[in-house]
Amino acid sequence: MRLLISFASILACTLPVHAQITVALKPSLGGSAELKIRNDGPVALAAYVIAGRQIMGMTKGEMYWPFKKYADSLVDMTAPLASSQERTVMRSGPRSVLEPAFVSAGIFADGTTTGDAALITDLMLRRSSMLLAVETALETLSTAGRHNMPRSLVIQQFRTFADLAKRWYLTPEQQAGWPLYDSVLFKLINLPDRPATSAFPPTGFVDQEGALLTRRRNALEESRPPLEDMTPGPVRK
User: What average pLDDT does the segment 161-190 reach?
Assistant: First the structure.
């Protein structure tokens, strides 16, 4: 059974990607392993993705589960990975092993890219999907605030947006916006009850959320490589 492979051969795997990103399996407590990424570039790594397979031990054999692990300061609101810093991406348990073959890509803070071109396109698609969600949420809240829409209707709109963004036929990259809809939905549901004649959402809420959404929209629109290109930027050598 491949799960009985010596960890020594697996944990020795370190994959440099154009000498800018290093992906490695490293031992951790309890005999498991951690998948780590290191930024070897000179500027902060704003977004990255690692794709691979995980081997799961089963009673009657093994099963292989593909995975993609994303992190993007503009989509997931995770902190950029500074130059020379390392981050744990995922951990394998005692009954699972990460195959020592990964494909990686990244976008640096200056807009240059590194790694697999197809994965860079996936990173860009996630940003585009998030921009669509941000603009939809911003316009919906603005319209509701101007027209004093019923509370139930506004809440149902965001519940529908979240459900649609999680449809099974969408790729994970196209589903990037649903956590934003869920976040706004949660805030709307938990707003205090107000008199029927009062504006909903409250003006203060619309202004506050609108400012946050506007900042996110501007950051995505101004990101590099430009979203309108939807093609990888220059690759570091």
Answer: 97
The single-letter code of the amino acid at 233 is G
Residue 48 CA: distances (Å) to CA of 4, 44, 103, 225, 233: 31, 11, 11, 14, 14
- In this structure, are residues 35 and 50 in contact, taking their beta carbons and an 8 Å threshold? yes
165's tokens:
């963004």
Mean pLDDT of 76-99: 89
pLDDT higher than threshold 90 for residue 3:
no
What value does the mean pLDDT of the chain take?
86
> What phi, psi does 208 have (nearest 5°)?
-65, -50
105 backbone φψ class: left, alpha, beta (φ>0; ψ -120 to 50):
beta
Tokens 């990037």 locate to 176
Residue 177, helix vs strand vs coil: coil
Model's pTM, two decimal places? Answer: 0.85
- How far is it, in rounded angstroms, from Cα 74 to Cα 126? 10
Which residues are 114's β-sheet partners? 106
* Whether 134 contacts 233, CB under 8 Å: no
Position 147: which residue type?
H
Domains of the chain and any CATH numbers? 2-115 (2.60.40), 126-221 (no CATH)
> What are the pLDDT digits (tens) for 188-217?
999 998 776 777 899 999 999 999 999 999
